[in-house]
Every structure is written in C-alpha cells, then in structure tokens.
Specification:
InterPro entries: Cro/C1-type_HTH, Lambda_DNA-bd_dom_sf. The protein is of the alpha+beta class. It is built from four helices and two strands; from the N terminus they run H-H-H-H-E-E. The longest helix is centred in the middle third of the chain and has 11 residues, at about 45-55.
Length: about 80
Amino acid sequence: MRAARAMLNWSVRDLADATGVGTATIVRYEMVDAAVPKARKNNLEIIRTCFEAAGIVFVGMPEDGPGLRAYPKRS
C-alpha cells in the first residue's frame, strides 16, 4: 500500500480522501508485516480498486513475489 501511494505521490490523507477509508486504518494496514493485513468490511478491495483506477497494477502473489507496476492514467 505504501509503495503504491509512493508511486502516485499520494499521502495517507490523499488515499483516505479517494477511498473513504480512515487515515488511522490506512496507517494500521501499512504497519502490518504480513503480506495482506486483516481488514473489516471491504476496505482492502476499495483501496485496491482506487489504486488500479489510478494506474497501479498489482503483480505476483502476496506469498511469492508481490510487486507493483504503474501505468499512466489515460484521459
């Protein structure tokens, strides 16, 4: 999550504003050492969808070779 924000030059507040997920929740997710943080509701899906709409592509599996690619958002 932090890497995707960095690729987009987004702050935690930017991501929170774009998704409606609270800043404290985002910070908590980013502090988890596990590949995928435990989450309530559909927050992770909302965040992923937001990143993908902004041009981020998630590659690999959380357990093996996860990564990101960024593609410019087309207008």
